[in-house]
Amino acid sequence: MASDDSHYRPAADFVETDAGGALRLRGRWTLRYSGAVRSALGKTAAEVKTIDARECERIDTLGVLQLLRFADARKIPYEALRFRPDQQQLADAIEDVHDDRPQGKREYGVRAMLGRIGFGLIDNAGEVMALVSFFGEFLVKILRLFKEPGRFRLTSTVHHMEQIGLDAVPLVALLSFMVGAVIAFLGAMVLKDFGATIFVVELVSAAFLREFGVLLTAILLAGRTASAFTAQIGMMVNNEEVDAIRVLGLDPIDLLVIPRVLALLAMLPLLTFIAMIAGLLGGMAVGAFNLDIPAPAYMARMSEMMQFRHFIVGMVKAPIFALVIGLIGCLEGLQTQGTAQSLGERTTSSVVQTISMVIVIDAFAALWFMQMDY
Fold first, then answer.
1. 265 and 323 Cβ atoms separated by less than 8 Å
2. Which residues on neighbouring strands pair with residue 23, listed in sequence order?
3. Is the dihedral of CA 144, 149, 155, 161 positive or negative?
4. Closest by alpha carbon to 222, among 50, 49, 357?
5. Rg, C-alpha atoms of the chain
6. β-pair type (56-59, 81-82)
7. Residue 350 CB neighbours (<10 A)
8. For strand 11-17 and strand 20-29, is the pairing parallel, antiparallel, or unpaired?
9. How far apart are the C-alpha atoms of 86 and 197, rounded to whole Å?
């Protein structure tokens, strides 16, 4: 038995050939002899150019995998490995997947943290560059509409205006009304200690006309509309409908992006105006029922104290937010890779990016208007 077992044990002999050093294998390169396989390869210190496994009596997945890893470590190309015809199919199948190892445990050191931060910055820089490029392409295609008005899709634009604007009116109005009431409650709680409850009128009016009206509307549409744009276009990418559009000689930007962005540009300012009115009504309701400020007195003070510039500040930001929401939602949809996982990731990314961009732009706009004393 001992002699038979020694005959089966894996062995590797180094020989010189015209093509350079060759490693000739014999024995059984199987799971049973895994230790001997590792030992035979570990003893090979010479320069190896080719590996000849045609004399192996048997070879299984473990044997092929060990040979492939040995070849990778010595930078030996797969073409330099020779197997018997009945073993070649197994070797080819394992070669396709032998690098796909499970990911190791996540590292938590300083070096790993700096690496993740670096990769995150690179990814974000790439997203910013893609958005800027997409914005430039959008501008080119918009300007082309003046030269070729037949490219404009009126029916599609009106359809998206209905979905974006009319269908969102109840939600925008209700949430704005409730937020206006909350601001009035909080303002009254602080101001009543100073006997200045009447200034709740100015607080609610300025807050909604300058900031909360447009900000609430933009955040709602970022979650509601940007995700819808990404999901719709992403599914078209997955179903190869976008490729079919290109094959037909049509432009996906004209068909899918421009109608959606124009619909947002038209409807977000209108929804912002509705949000402003609803927020002011929420503050008025709290003033009338809890602060002993009758509605006529509330309206009179608001008309007396508020300036039209506050309304202009809020409305100016609406088209900017609409452009950002529309472009990011459509871009993320077009970047879908054709899988369900990619579609989910892109939809999440579009919501996160649009909400973040809206808040950042609003913050910079608030600082700018403050410095301009407007």
1. yes
2. 14, 51
3. positive
4. 357
5. 34
6. unpaired
7. 28
8. antiparallel
9. 90
Q: For 24-77, how does the pLDDT look when each residue is reduced to its tens digit (9 = 90+)?
A: 888 888 888 878 888 877 777 667 788 888 888 888 888 888 888 888 887 888
Residue pair 311/276 in contact (Cβ under 8 Å)? The answer is yes
Q: Which residues contact 365 (CB under 8 A, 6 or more apart)?
A: 313, 317
DSSP annotation of 84: -
The whole-angstrom separation of Cα 364 and Cα 367 is 5
**Which residues partner with 50 through β-bridges?**
22
317 DSSP 8-state letter: H
pLDDT tens-place string over residues 333-365:
999 887 888 888 899 999 999 999 999 999 999
Token digits for 90? 């197994």
Q: How many secondary structure helices (H) and strands (E) does the chain include?
A: 16, 5
Which pair of tokens denotes residue 372?
Answer: 């301009």
Q: Which pLDDT does position 259 carry in this prediction?
A: 93
Rounded CA separation 80/19 (Å): 10
What is the greatest pairwise CA distance in the chain? 109
- Sign of the four-CA dihedral 144, 148, 149, 154: negative
d(CA 326, CA 262): 9
The closest of 224, 211, 208 to 362, measured between CA atoms, is 211
Please choose, from the candidates 47, 57, 46, 50, the residue with its C-alpha nearest in 3D space to the C-alpha of residue 11. Answer: 57
Where do the domains of the chain lie, and which CATH numbers do they carry? 2-97 (3.30.750.24), 150-371 (no CATH)
Separation CA 297–CA 176 (nearest Å): 22
Token couple for 140: 């080119």
